[in-house]
Amino acid sequence: MVISLHGDEISFATSGSTGTSTRWVRTFAQIRAEVTVVAARLGPIGQIVNFAPTGHLFGHLYGVVLPETLGVPVHHGWHHPAAVPTIRPDVATLLVCLPSSWPIVRSMARSLAALPAVVALHGTGPIVPATRTVIERLDGGNFRVVEIFGSTETGAIATRAVEATGSQPLWSLLPDVDLIAEVDGGPQPLRVSSPRLGRNETMADYPQVLVLDDLVEPQAGRLFAHAGRASRLIKVNGVRCDLDAVEAHVALLHPGCEVACVADRDTLRGEHYDLFYSAPAPGPTPEQIWSVFGRFLGPVPLPRSVCRVEGIPRSATGKVLTERVRGLARATAQPTIGFT
């Protein structure tokens, strides 16, 4: 568990996916305020199926605090993540989903179609192909997906609807969050103010403003476009490289592959990255993955290395555990290609 209770405060640890974990503190009043403003965008809820571990912020908020606030029953699907949950057939239902939840939700499509209303709240990671498959199967019914944008530090910041077409709608700020934009506009670090901002364990007081690693483009009407994460946008010998885009393209060209690009400092080029992937047998070879770059990705800088591993280790909320994946690569008997 990553939750700790201290009087009228509760603390959550960040995932430690890039190294050292740190704790952020919120008050119970902040927690209750968050689920209230998010619930207002979800519509009626008569029961909740929660796929997110409750030891982490997302699962605790919407698998514990929200059902307590609304007085509705909750089924914790994360206890048995491969099992299809049994749900009441006659009430509006909220599904609390991680990226890894969607294959199970897909298998529930027929029973979901019979419900009066279903909303899936997706968080902690990107939308996956199974998400859009479910939307397509239930198109025209009472099913919708709401994606939530936030962090351990800030709590929920914004939401948007998810569409089967793959389009990327703008994010809509929650009513108690303000985006502090730079005068010149354009992609810029995400600066937010809110009465719900967390306090780092090293801070004496709760902050008025926090700056996140995300880059955004502010739009009119309290909307913004997400341009990526600063830590996922690196420059290899002066050439910009979006690691999220690299992962998405490689996975698209090699269906079934799970891909993780891990950034690192490089003594020669300043910054660089290594590409790790796992795939069912026989799967592509590192050479086949490498060939994707020259044929399909144009000027995108080649990874420093390509290594096949037995699974990409992730936190309970889906974030890549970089030190563990590097450890797997060092221990693997699989061939690695690249340059130094």
Structure description:
The protein is α+β, with helices and mostly antiparallel strands. It has two domains: 3-228, 3-Layer(aba) Sandwich (Rossmann fold), CATH 3.40.50.12780; 237-338, ANL, C-terminal domain (GMP Synthetase, Chain A, domain 3, 2-Layer Sandwich), CATH 3.30.300. It has eight helices and 21 strands. It has helices spanning 28-39, 57-70, 102-107, 109-113, 129-137, 243-253, 286-296, 322-331, and strands at residues 3-6, 9-13, 23-27, 47-50, 74-76, 93-97, 118-122, 143-151, 155-161, 171-173, 178-179, 188-193, 199-200, 209-219, 223-229, 233-236, 239-242, 258-266, 270-278, 305-308, 336-338. It has an eleven-stranded mixed β-sheet, with helices on one face. Helix 1 (28-39) crosses helix 2. The radius of gyration is 21 Å and the shape is globular.
In the CATH hierarchy, the architecture of the largest domain is: 3-Layer(aba) Sandwich
Shape: globular
Number of helices: 8
CATH C-level name of the largest domain: Alpha Beta
CATH superfamily of the largest domain: ANL, N-terminal domain
Mean pLDDT: 87
Written as H for each helix and E for each strand, in order along the chain, the element string is EEEHEHEEHHEHEEEEEEEEEEHEEHEHE
Radius of gyration, CA atoms, in whole angstroms: 21 Å
CATH topology of the largest domain: Rossmann fold
Strand content: 25-35%
Low-confidence stretches: none
Q: Give the strand line-up of the largest sheet.
A: 5-4-6-7-8-9-10-15-14-12-11
Number of strands: 21
**Class from helix and strand fractions:** alpha+beta
Largest sheet: 11 strands, mixed
